[in-house]
Amino acid sequence: MTVTTPRGFRAAGVAAGLKASGAGDVALVLNDGPDAGVAAVFTANRVKAAPVLWTQQVVRGGVVRAVVLNSGGANACTGPAGFQDTHATAEHTATALTASSPRLMLGAGEVAVCSTGLIGERLPMDKLLPGVRAAVRGLSREGGQPAAEAIMTTDTRPKTTVAGGSGWTVGGMAKGAGMLAPAMATMLCVLTTDAVAGPETLDAALRAATRVTFDRIDSDGCMSTNDTVLLLASGASGIAPTEAELTAAVTAACHDLAQQLIADAEGATKQIAIDVVGAATEKDAVEVGRSVARNNLVKTALFGNDPNWGRILAAVGTTAAAFEPDGVDVAVNGVWVCRSGAAAEDRAKVDLTGRDVTIRIDLHAGEAAATIWTNDLSHAYVHENSAYST
């Protein structure tokens, strides 16, 4: 269940010394082809890390043969020198791969670069580049799991997935445990497929998938500078699925990874689904769900096992969605604690002792619906992020 499950891909994960812990911190994914189509979505943050700026340029060419990723440093807000470091990383990767197998003949413009870690510090290139060479030497069909482990930061476990088609497969890996807010992508993610698909088909499938998966998870309302989702196609299966079939498989893979991200969110003790129904438009449903997901009073109440529906209703009221305040119903774990904007069933009936929580909000304004996934806000989250850089 990794990026190397689809045919035509090899990967590696190595420790280059970027992390003080000595854990893996450089990953490499290679597309052996025969095809090398690519699609990607990136953060909408106006402050973009050097690897995002580089990879945006690379993806425009429609061909990516390799992705090199590092944890232990974001290479964000590092100026022109940081961009030069990203360029040098791509060049070094292309040179090392070509030297390992002349049939590859890669150029830097076919290498995507992703970085994750602390913002504002340049990467130690004297460690990163030897790590790239070690990753090239370690490439294998069994390298998907070490690669997934090497991109972890505050993650407590690697995140991998596989979704099936008829004779073709989609695989994937992702990292992310904080700064999970949308627009777009919410973390680092590499998806692979052995289906035959060109860049336009890949782009349509990826954007359709991310819209209802990664774009619907919202851990802490904070948007990263490095968010990248890449979809690579090797064509090694020889099978060209329909766009609908490819979209369904990519969506399944993205949904699985998105749920793993929320489950592993920093300090989380609750995994929360906010189902908004009866909305006038899907946009309204998403806006309402996101408002509740980002409300610290709601999140802390759930951490304390308190079904405080008043906080939920107050969060709904901050949106521009179409609804009547005295027409909103709210249920928490199946108990309708609010009907028509007022108290209904006894909140004491709500069982919040488990990890999974479902909040259902009926706006009674239309037929549209959407789900946003989030987590609670705990002491551990505050501790993790109060000392992250020290």
Provide the descriptors you would attach to this structure in a database record.
five-stranded mixed beta sheet, six-stranded mixed beta sheet, alpha+beta, globular, 390 residues, 23% strand
Detailed description of the structure:
- Helix content is 32%, strand content 23%.
- By secondary structure, it is α+β, with helices and mostly antiparallel strands.
- The strands form three sheets. Strands 13-12-11-14-10-15 form a six-stranded mixed β-sheet. It has a five-stranded mixed β-sheet with strand order 3-9-8-7-6, sandwiched between helices.
Strand and helix layout:
Blueprint lengths: L8 E6 L11 E6 L5 E6 L7 H11 L5 E5 L8 H22 L10 E5 L9 H14 L5 H7 L8 E6 L4 E7 L12 E6 L5 H13 L16 E6 L9 H21 L7 E9 L2 H12 L2 H8 L5 H8 L12 E4 L2 E5 L2 E2 L12 E7 L5 E8 L3 H8 L4
Parallel strand pairs: 4-5, 8-9, 10-14
Antiparallel strand pairs: 1-2, 2-4, 3-9, 6-7, 7-8, 10-15, 11-12, 11-14, 12-13
Outline the biggest β-sheet: 6 strands, mixed
- Report helical residue fraction: 25-40%
- The tally of beta strands, per DSSP, is 15
Order of helices and strands: EEEHEHEHHEEEHEHEHHHEEEEEH
The secondary-structure class comes to: alpha+beta
Widest sheet: strand ordering: 13-12-11-14-10-15
What percent strand? 15-25%
Radius of gyration from the CA trace? 22 Å
Distance between the termini: 35 Å
Assembly state of the chains shown: single chain
